[in-house]
Amino acid sequence: MTSLQAALDAGADAVYLGLDTLNMRRMATRNFTRETLPEASSRCRACGTRLYLTLNTLLYEGELAAAEAVLQFAKPHVDAVIVADWGAIALCQRLGVPFHVSTQMSCANSEAARFLKRQGADRVVLARECTLDEVAAIAATAGIEVETFVHGAVCVAVSGRCLLSHEAYGCSSNRGECRQPCRREFLIREVREGEDADAAFRVTPNTVLSARDLCSLPFVDRLVAAGIAAFKIEGRARNPEYVKTVVSAYRAAIDAVRDGTFTAERAAHWCEACARVYHREFGCGLYHGRPGEDQFTDTDENQATARKLYVGVVLNYYAKAGMVQIQVQDQPIAPGDTLSIHGPTSGVVDLTVTALRRDRETCERAERGTWVTVACPQRVRVNDKVFVVRASGVVPGVEG
Ligand code: SF4
Asked: What is the tens place of the pLDDT at every residue in 58-95?
């Protein structure tokens, strides 16, 4: 709910989420539930934001009843369901549920898009393997809205057709459980017996499997010109500050394209902002054609240039004075620090500490075990979590 609120505050005009079943982020402990979906829905409707439910795994025979029950439950709460299975499409047709076709269905040409439109789809999320020229051609001729991924992790398997995680850990990528073994380094050793046997190969991620994260901010203007109806930011298992930062950057970039103020310098600035939160190295995905070696990364480590450290919780918020009282439970804070306050209703509220006060006294530093008040014009709530944001020392590497 904190991430949802962050997305709404950052200017997303649509949000997608999964319930705890039949979606491609099954390991995400942050999925919504039947209890929380109505609240999510009313928040979105209150600010005119569309809400889409991901029901995008393949459906096996024994799951049809569960899928139908999810669709019936979700129908009044969502604007559309994102599906990846012909059975799910049939269920949507029968139940009258608007649906989008997931990237998992690998729609990569205008014939396929037109066919899906005839089946009742309102939109297709194109295969990630499409180049920008192909996207533009499909958008121009298919007669259906197209959506593409613009930011986030990229997978070398064609739309998730990969058995690595399932073979290695019994956790299937196609059921939303991928453990991402492609991001690691492996030793392949020959097991044949004989004198010339026992060969060994080191398989490193940067040459074979581990794609850079997609960041399309440098060419958002070309994406808009391609006629894409919706820009999809990957981030269902990400932290709230990731959601806020990345959505804000794309909101600003798209608005700048619309009002004619988009420039390479501004794009570089937005890239830098996105580099502050979780990412691997950035690349341009497959928009510009088949990826070369420079679109792979040799580390699966987080490249964020900033990190957040836990400070404590909000004890009180004084709306008239615009002050927040914080119980410091871990990291000390001082004037000049950047705080990030997270809560399910507050979303993500960032502020710079101008002064610290306790009992009308000004203090230089608030240590663990003490409380302190800080100016905070935006409302936060009791028990919201407070973090301090510090530089992590990683130099951003942004490529366009
Ligand atoms: S293991 Fe890697 S390549 Fe395979 S589905 Fe997962 S992220 Fe994609």
From this structure: 899 999 999 999 999 999 999 999 999 999 999 999 99
Count of residues making up the chain: 400
Distance in Å, CA 181 to ligand 1 centroid: 7
Identity of the amino acid at 102: S
Minimal-distance CA residue to ligand 1 atom 4: 162
Nearest Cα to Cα of residue 5 among 182, 229, 287, 243 = 243
Q: How far is the CA of 136 from the centre of ligand 1 (A)?
A: 27
Task: Give the Cα separation of 278 and 300 in Å (integer).
Answer: 11
Q: Which of 164, 183, 184 to mutate to test the pocket of ligand 1 (most atoms within 8 A of CB)?
A: 164
Which pTM value belongs to this model? 0.90
Beta bridge partners of 366: 333
The CA 325 to ligand 1 mean position distance, Å, reads: 44
Domains of the chain: 2-159+210-295 (3.20.20.70), 164-203 (no CATH), 306-391 (2.40.30.10)
From residue 26, give the alpha-carbon distance in Å to each of 19, 178, 344: 9, 9, 21
171-208 residue pLDDT tens: 888 788 888 888 888 888 888 888 888 888 877 766 66
Contacts of 256 (CB under 8 A, 6+ apart): 262, 263, 266
d(CA 313, CA 309): 12
Query: How do residues 231-259 score in pLDDT, each as one tens digit?
Result: 999 877 789 999 999 999 999 999 999 99
Q: Could you tell me the distance, in angstroms and rounded to a whole number, from the CA of residue 165 to the centre of ligand 1? A: 7
Q: Residue 183 CA: which ligand 1 atom is closest?
A: 2
In sequence order, what DSSP letters do the residues of 291-354 get, joined into one string?
--GGGB-S--S---SEEEEEEEEEEEEETTTTEEEEEE-SS-B-TT-EEEEEETTTEEEEEE--
